[in-house]
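Hi,

I'm pasting everything inline rather than attaching a file, because the server keeps stripping attachments. The sequence lines come first, and each chain or strand is labelled.
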Amino acid sequence: MEEFKEYLEETGEIGEVIGFSNCIAEISGLPNLRLHEMVISESGDKGIVFELKKEMAKVLIFGKNLKVGEKVVRTEKSFQILVSENLLGRVVDPLLKPIDNLGPILGEKEYWEIYRDAPGIVKRRRIKKPLNTGVMLVDFLIPIGYGQRELIIGDAKTGKTTFLLQIIVNQAKEGVICIYVGIGKETSAIKFVEDYLKAEGGFQNTVMIIAFAKDSPTLNYLAPFAGMTLAEFFRDKGKNVLIVFDDLTSHAKFYREISLLAKKLPGRSCYPGDIFHVQAALLERAGNIETRWGERAITALPVGETLENDLSGYIQTNLMAMTDGHIFFDSEEFRKGKRPAINPFLSVSRVGNQTKNQLEREIVQLIRKHLIEYQKAQAVSQFGIELSPKTRKILEIGRKIEILFEQDPKTLIPYPLRIFLFGLLFVGFFDGKPENLCKLEKEEIIKIFEKGGLKELEKIEKIKSIDELKNFIEGIVPKVKETLHPSFKNASF
Amino acid sequence: MEEIFEKISQKAITKEDLVFLLEQLSVIEKEIFTNPKNLLSEKLKGKIDESLRKEIEKLEKEGILPSTPQDQISFFKEFENFLFKIPTVKLEIAFEPSNDFLVELDKWFKEKVKRKMILDIEINPKIIGGVKIEYQGRWRDYSLEKEMEKFYGGI
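And the predicted assembly:
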């Protein structure tokens, strides 16, 4: 009430609730009200101006305490949330209030507006630093750079969240601040994310902003904006930030619900006309930006959900248009048992390639060539005709590449190791070996590397061309064989 | 037509008066279709406020009020819409105002704002003196409450 009186005296304007439906209140009065301004009611409920009409405004409200006839005042401020560095390692709601039963957020806090303009062209810098996801297929074929906006798209239950968690763990361990924004999620799904991050490490560098499916559409709609504001806060403190929006198709559905309640004119699939603008303005706030600390990036990984692999949906195509590429999780590949179930032919990274060095570019070129040949050869092999030795060789290499790309969710493969594994393939290390043996050898090499073995791989960072790599690998193959073979002495294939 | 409506609604000063007038209008609308041979002012005898009935009688004599029931209905509907469009000014004062005070207040608003206003009076003794005004979303505090708070807060 005190806050209400203070704002009333400060602004000299008063309004009245004249209508109320679900999460939208209609307010008369307040002649100078602005879009996105915060309003406060007599009972202390807060709301955000969602739509302005000639004689009334529509306000998004959080609680359900508001009554028709209640007085409302404006605050002359855009909606704000309290941000703090102490949010790291916490699970909070979109208003950044803790929901993890670990007590209040202590320490210094700052009020930040949730609707902020995206940085202008002058502040933006070229994306040139690679963001290592630890997932070999992505790091080679669909690379992501710091400051990029890459859409993660695919059907439900195809491993999108697990893939994102792998990236979060890998990045959090490298000191990047990670923000996971869950929109319209079930409690069990959030528990899985929290447990995964706690078990794999990196949770201390992560903030989880969660809006549950049972929460009001207002909270779900605001969640990504709160997440982006927090990301900007950390960026301006000199940190690189990775933000995951899981997922923006649900966000669009909540926005549609609000818009229909507010009687906004529905457009395609009943979404309001400004859905593109709302989500594009959000993602536009990411990027590689010049700050007083130098270049600092907000890398945004929005998630889009498809139905039956249909990439042509309204929101899905919108999201593709406002991002710098997409990684497509194919349910067909998932059913075949491929992990991660990414379809490299339907995925694209528009700016990630510019972060790659010469060696990686050469390797990727070779992999792509082999994969295309493999795809064609697979089509031919289905006719049941006798295959030429050349076709058989293509099929063998293609299958070996697939084996190398297969990766379980708990394994992260760093740069030298992935270069080394493909180097081994190109020097013929896996030639003629059965698939099972290849798999075991790959896993053994990863284990040895994780335990601190294969110290020679440190030199890979300095290698500049594929020929140089082949020479280097041929030099250490005998040692690798020596290290590997005792493990498989008694193995039978 | 607006001038005529303004004249009929002259006595509606407060929100309560306006509600009363609207109730009277609903009675009038019901009576329009009874006894078609009689004049409306005759049919309304003893059913509505006498001063309003006389105003209607005057309109009948001047030929301003339409003669057919359908046209009479549209006339009163138009009048209703006019009443709904009169802006309301909310006044929070410390005492129960007398009728004369309200008439004076109405006159003052007409002079200053140059249009008819409906006064929504709220009595709040806590403001001690003066007035708090609320009009079309604008709010001003000309009461003694704040001054007193400042004075006692300073002691």
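The mean pLDDT of chain B is 89.

If the labels don't parse on your end, tell me and I'll reformat.
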